[in-house]
Amino acid sequence: MPAKSKAQFRFMQAVAHGGIKKPGLSEATAKEYVSGQTPKGLPEKKHDKHRGIAKKANELFRKGEK
Prior knowledge:
Distance between the termini: 47 Å
Helix content: 40-55%
Largest sheet: none
């Protein structure tokens, strides 16, 4: 399973190299996850589509208040 963002890739690299301990995620699993991957071409962060919808709804709500 490839990483979806640079942030996710860096996190898995940190777990794979022992920098971060995460319950339920072993170093071996993290190493397998990032093996053969590079962060080139990945977005910095994966954007949450629901966050954009909530932001738009909030803007519309605030326009109605004025």
